[in-house]
Structure formats: C-alpha cells, structure tokens
Amino acid sequence: MLRRQFHHLLTASVAASSFLSPVLTHAQQRVLLRAGDQKGGLQALLDAAGELKNLPYDIKWSEFPAAAPLAEALNANAVDFGPIGDAPLLFTLAAGSRVKAFAANRSDAYGTAVLVAPNSPLKTAADLKGKSIATNRGSIGHFVTLKVLESAGLKADDVQLRFIPPPDAKLALTQGSVDAWATWEPYTALAETSGHARVLVSGRGLWTGLSFLAATDAALAEKRAVLQDFKERVARAQVWSYQNSKSFGQS
C-alpha cells in the first residue's frame, strides 16, 4: 500500500485563525462536505482507520477514475475538494481554476510507473521507442511518461501516446492493444498483484512524489474548519495504516 503523510501547507491561508474555530457550534446546522476521491482510496483509508465515525459534519463522496475528471469537478464547483497529484494540479491552475492546495503529502514514487505486460519483451525505457503508451491526458501518468522518455533520450514524438482513462488503459494493455500503460496507485499495485502487468520504469528519481488535497476557493472560504478537521483525520488514518499495514492491506 502506498505510504504517505499529509502535512499543513505553510501558507497564510491555511494558517488563518478561522481554521482554529470549532467545526460546528450548537446553533449551526450540520455542514455538508462534498468530497472527491480517486478510485475510492481516500474513503477506504478513512473507513479502515475508523476516522469516519462520529463525524460532526456530513460527507457526500464522489468517485473519479483519475485526476483530470476530478479537476474538472473542482473547476465546476461540483465537489469541495479532492486528492490530486502535482502535475494535474499545475495543469488545473494553469487553466485558471479557482482552487488551492490545503494539504500535501510525499509518497514513494514507485507507484507511479510505466507498466507493460508480464511477458513483454520491453526491458528498458529506451525500448519504448516506436511503441504505444496508454495514459490519461494531463495526469501524473502523462507527466511520468514524458520524464521516462526524457531519461532515455527520447521525445514524445518517438512513441504513440494514447489518451484513455485507467480502466480502458488496463484493458488495452491486457488485450495487447497497447505496448505500455503509464499510471499511478492504486492501479499499479492492483495490476502487479493480479499478475496483469509489471513495472518497466517506476517514477523513482523522475518526480517529487508530491500530491495534494486541493479545495475550491468557495469551500476554503465557507468550510475551513471542516476541511481542517478532515485533513487531521486523514493524517491520523495514515499513521494508523503504517502501524496496521497487514490488516489495512487486507481491508
């Protein structure tokens, strides 16, 4: 399971005194927090750690297969916040989305990788020349693909990039429609443990391993205390997952 730890971002917005106010007062109605998630990973972590019990607010979960549709939902104000990688966040901000990161984590970059079929003849990044690679446009997988190619002295024009979502990319790889698939956790772990793929090149040394919890400006203005409480629950859940890795891996 991918190890990560969420931290405060040392910015004035997160350090603002309004974050220190109680999540709810008796006079307030329960706040609804609209949480975006990728492949249910965040919800599964919190649930396994018991951090979704006795919440002083309500959560409506929306699941997305990748960062790009989650970023679109943030931009459309369809969700309040969600987990997103550094490259997708930069793409989102460059497009003018009114979102901000309010927590960050650094994880093992191994889980963001270029995968190939177990019996693939490809052995190194250089072997990707002239091959087809499936990934999600604007995703951390897309970013790592470019870094992998660069590390081998190749350019994007040296391969055939096919932009399709993770479920379709996995199917394309297993059916032999593409030569490789650039993806991230939990897809990497699931593909490896199921025997459907192996890692050709991992993201170690190619990207920072940083990802974020990003929220809309509106949510940060109206639900700061709730977002702070949620972030602290995620941090506690991560500590729990480290201390209970075996049971968490089976959950």
Keywords:
D-Maltodextrin-Binding Protein, domain 2, 10 helices, 2 domains, 36% helix, 251 residues, four-stranded antiparallel β-sheet, alpha/beta
Structure in words:
By secondary structure, the chain is of the alpha/beta class. It folds into 2 domains: 6-107 and 209-250, 3-Layer(aba) Sandwich (D-Maltodextrin-Binding Protein, domain 2), CATH 3.40.190; 109-202, D-Maltodextrin-Binding Protein, domain 2 (3-Layer(aba) Sandwich). It has 10 helices and 11 strands. The chain has helices spanning 12-15, 41-48, 67-75, 86-94, 140-151, 166-175, 187-193, 217-222, 224-243, 245-250, and strands at residues 6-8, 32-38, 58-64, 81-85, 99-106, 113-116, 132-135, 160-163, 180-183, 198-202, 210-216. It has a 5-stranded mixed sheet, with helices on both faces. Helix 5 (140-151) links the parallel strand 7 (132-135) and strand 8. Helix 2 (41-48) crosses helix 9 (224-243). It is globular and about 60 Å long. The termini are close together. Mean pLDDT is 87; it is low at 1-5 and 7-21.
In what range is the share of β-strand residues?
A: 15-25%
CATH homologous superfamily identity of the largest domain: Periplasmic binding protein-like II
CATH class of the largest domain: Alpha Beta
User: Could you give the distance between the termini?
Assistant: 11 Å
How do the strands line up in the largest sheet?
A: 8-7-9-6-10
Indicate the percent of residues in helices: 25-40%
Average pLDDT: 87
Q: Work out the number of β strands.
A: 11
Number of domains: 2
Helix run count: 10
User: Which CATH architecture of the largest domain would you pick?
Assistant: 3-Layer(aba) Sandwich
- Reported by name, the CATH topology of the largest domain is D-Maltodextrin-Binding Protein, domain 2
Describe the sheet with the most strands.
Answer: 5 strands, mixed
Return the structural class.
Answer: alpha/beta
Low-confidence spans: pLDDT under 50, at least 5 residues?
1-5, 7-21
